[in-house]
């Protein structure tokens, strides 16, 4: 199978991409994508270099500024990139760093003991993908500068002035290339989240983020003397801690520096975040496995010794980790990551190092704090009972074949096409909207599942209550994947899961409850792009028997600008889906040719921040929720209060 081609294919057709041309030709290989995510990755690469200086003990302040022209300047007070000639390359070391791939002080040459920038492509990749990049170095009383454009040297490294002998450091300014990136506008909030995380992970470093684009510049400073202990406090701010302490373990083993901070709260979801040399490892790895082993082993051992459980009983790791927030951060000289994306640690020695340090120090802590140990174990025993009840309930919700007699939920109007790739399911609030949707839909490919009112807030419920909830049970059965540890995406019955609610406060709340459930129990549905929000129109405009629909105030204004504003205009503001008849609902919200869908996306790199957002919005604490609403009210549009 193939297509014919008359093009010649010989030795000369094999391309050799020299220098940084390869990066410009295939940027996704080096920074993941050319979308907003890849754009922000450029900043992290330069900041990572400054953080490496901090980890080595030479830098304590990093300033990141988004300039008015959307270029970014990163200033650190480290030693400054070396300016001497690199004899192997015959050019100054700084030029090697910015123009040659896989060059840097991170490959066993004694430059850095530990380093986040594993592949040594950071600075040169940023240079290759920038319209221009300028580096200024303060070193031994002199100020050096070099400029590049799209990776090419504009002028040789030169001395442009003198400075105090004590002043050292590096300043890098770069402007991302609009020929490469689909999006070239930096998002202050995205940078804020990542830089805050970096500051938590590097005790005592100060990171200042400034945005000079608004009329009133915005500035945030991140400086945490408590390091990851303060990180746990931050992650738990919307929750009620079970005990006041942050349990902290720290030590060196086999040349690996291990830091672990943890605290239980009265909630039911576990939040485990792991890092290697300050790089987040969303898929965990050997360091996280070592921690989990140590935790399970130590608590069971303590519980048996103190007769809190029988000698024959064993608490599972899941039971002990219910409501636990933990940061596992290690510094290792030669990290081996699985995959180019650096999302999972593979070093076997990391497992033993974390297990050893946590087992030893956690047992000492529990013996010294018997009240805390008792609280955690009581919660774990309750979790164990709930898990057993949930197992029984779960067995009933597992979707069995027709022979086993388990049918789909009665209120589901399923589609006739059995190929999941062609099918989609609308989750609709209320019977009236459900009725309109059932009439409007394309029966071959669109299924409708109406929900009665608001589903259970899973942020405040244990597994047994979740499995017993009729609305959640209906969704689990309809999707076919199972949830939690039973989840299997290959059994998904619909390619698109579309949440369709009213465009008002209640509708927004129902959407958030549904997203909370999917995020906590079926996150892969979101990660793999199966979850969408329908966008029903806000307005219907009728004039001279013609009809227009507007999905925002701006769109309505644009339509009125075209058709004119006069007394013949009949404008209807839709308060809910139930106000539309089936034909209107199809035309505006369900017709694949005309509808507007918003895909729900999830960024692995900011999973800790996502957890904080869900907990803040859906947890018990009122104050953090009020602060969140006040901080984000400016971004909300078209919400009826």
How does this model look, in words?
The protein is α+β, with helices and mostly antiparallel strands. It has an eight-stranded mixed sheet. Strands 11-12-15-13-14 form a five-stranded mixed sheet, sandwiched between helices. Strands 17-16-18-19-23 form a five-stranded mixed sheet, with helices on both faces. The model is unreliable at 1-7, 12-17, 106-111, 399-406 and 633-641 (pLDDT under 50).
Which terms summarize this structure?
HATPase_C_sf; eight-stranded mixed beta sheet; EC 5.6.2.2; alpha+beta; 641 residues; GyrB; cytoplasm; globular
Task: Summarize the entry for a quick read.
The chain is of the alpha+beta class and 641 residues long. The protein is built from 20 helices and 23 strands. Strand 20 (539-543) and strand 21 form a beta hairpin.
Layout of helices and strands, plus pairs?
Layout: H1 21-25, H2 28-31, H3 36-55, E1 61-66, E2 72-76, E3 85-86, E4 91-92, H4 93-99, H5 122-128, E5 130-139, E6 142-149, E7 152-162, E8 169-176, H6 188-201, E9 206-211, E10 218-223, H7 228-235, E11 247-253, E12 256-264, E13 271-276, E14 279-280, H8 286-305, H9 317-320, E15 324-331, H10 348-368, H11 370-397, E16 424-429, H12 431-440, E17 446-451, H13 463-468, H14 470-479, E18 496-500, H15 505-521, H16 523-527, E19 531-534, E20 539-543, E21 546-550, H17 553-563, E22 570-573, H18 582-590, E23 597-599, H19 607-618, H20 622-632
Parallel strand pairs: 1-9, 13-15, 16-17, 16-18, 18-19
Antiparallel strand pairs: 1-2, 2-8, 3-4, 5-6, 5-8, 6-7, 9-10, 11-12, 12-15, 13-14, 19-23, 20-21, 20-22
Helix pairs in contact: 3-5, 3-6, 4-5, 8-10, 12-18, 19-20
């Amino acid at each position: 199978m193939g297509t014919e081609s008359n093009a010649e294919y010989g030795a000369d057709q094999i391309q050799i991409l020299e220098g940084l041309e390869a990066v410009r030709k295939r940027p996704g290989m080096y920074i993941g994508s050319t979308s907003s995510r890849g754009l922000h990755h450029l900043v992290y690469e330069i900041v990572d270099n400054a953080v490496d200086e901090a980890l080595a003990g030479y830098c304590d302040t990093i300033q990141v500024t988004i300039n008015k022209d959307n270029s970014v300047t990163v200033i650190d007070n480290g030693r400054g990139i070396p300016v001497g000639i690199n004899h192997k390359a015959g050019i100054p070391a700084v030029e090697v760093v910015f123009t040659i791939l896989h060059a840097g002080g991170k490959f066993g040459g004694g430059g850095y003991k530990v380093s986040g920038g594993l592949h040594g492509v950071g600075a040169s990749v940023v240079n290759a993908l920038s319209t221009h990049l300028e580096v200024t170095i303060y070193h031994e009383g002199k100020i050096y500068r070099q400029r590049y454009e799209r990776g090419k040297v504009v002028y040789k490294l030169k001395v442009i002035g003198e400075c105090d002998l004590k002043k050292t450091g590096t300043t890098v300014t770069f402007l991302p290339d609009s020929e490469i990136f689909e999006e070239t506008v930096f998002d202050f909030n995205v940078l804020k989240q990542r830089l805050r995380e970096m500051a938590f992970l590097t005790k005592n470093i100060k990171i200042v983020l400034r945005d000079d684009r608004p009329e009133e510049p915005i500035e945030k400073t991140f400086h945490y003397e408590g390091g990851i202990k303060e990180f746990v406090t931050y992650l738990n701010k919307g929750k009620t801690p079970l005990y006041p302490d942050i349990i902290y373990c720290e030590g060196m083993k086999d040349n690996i520096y291990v830091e672990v901070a943890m605290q239980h709260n009265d909630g039911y979801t576990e939040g485990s975040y792991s890092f290697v040399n300050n790089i987040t490892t969303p898929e965990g790895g050997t360091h996280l496995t070592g921690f989990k082993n140590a935790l399970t082993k130590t608590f069971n051992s303590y519980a048996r010794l103190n007769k809190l459980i029988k000698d024959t009983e064993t608490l599972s790791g899941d039971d002990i980790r219910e409501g636990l927030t933990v940061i596992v951060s290690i510094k290792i000289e030669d990290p081996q990551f699985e995959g180019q994306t650096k999302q999972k640690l593979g070093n076997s020695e990391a497992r033993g190092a974390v297990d050893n340090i946590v087992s030893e120090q956690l047992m000492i802590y529990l013996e010294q704090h018997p009240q805390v140990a008792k609280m955690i174990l009581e919660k774990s025993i309750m979790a164990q009972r709930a898990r057993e009840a949930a197992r029984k309930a779960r067995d009933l919700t597992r979707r069995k074949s027709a022979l086993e007699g388990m049918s789909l939920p009665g209120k589901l109007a399923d589609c006739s096409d059995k190929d999941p790739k062609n099918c989609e399911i609308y989750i609709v609030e209320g019977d009236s909207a459900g009725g309109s949707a059932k009439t409007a839909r394309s029966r071959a490919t669109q299924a409708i599942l109406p929900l009665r009112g608001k589903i259970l807030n899973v942020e405040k419920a244990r597994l047994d209550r979740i499995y017993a909830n009729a609305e959640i049970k209906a969704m689990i059965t309809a999707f076919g994947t199972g949830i939690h540890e039973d989840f299997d995406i290959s059994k998904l019955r619909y390619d698109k899961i579309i949440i369709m609610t009213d465009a008002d406060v209640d509708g927004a709340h129902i959407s958030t409850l549904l997203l909370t459930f999917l995020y906590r129990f079926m996150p892969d549905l979101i990660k793999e792009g199966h979850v969408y929000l329908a966008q029903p129109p806000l307005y219907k405009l009728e004039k001279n028997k013609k009809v227009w629909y507007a999905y925002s105030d701006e769109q309505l204004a644009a339509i009125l600008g075209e058709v004119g504003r006069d007394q013949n205009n009949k404008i209807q503001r839709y308060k809910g889906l139930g106000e539309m008849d089936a034909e209107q609902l199809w035309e505006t919200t369900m017709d694949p040719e005309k509808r507007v869908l918003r895909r729900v996306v999830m960024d692995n790199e900011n999973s800790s921040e996502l957890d904080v957002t869900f907990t803040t919005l859906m947890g018990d604490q009122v104050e953090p929720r009020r602060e969140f609403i006040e901080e984000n009210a400016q971004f909300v549009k078209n919400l009826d209060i």
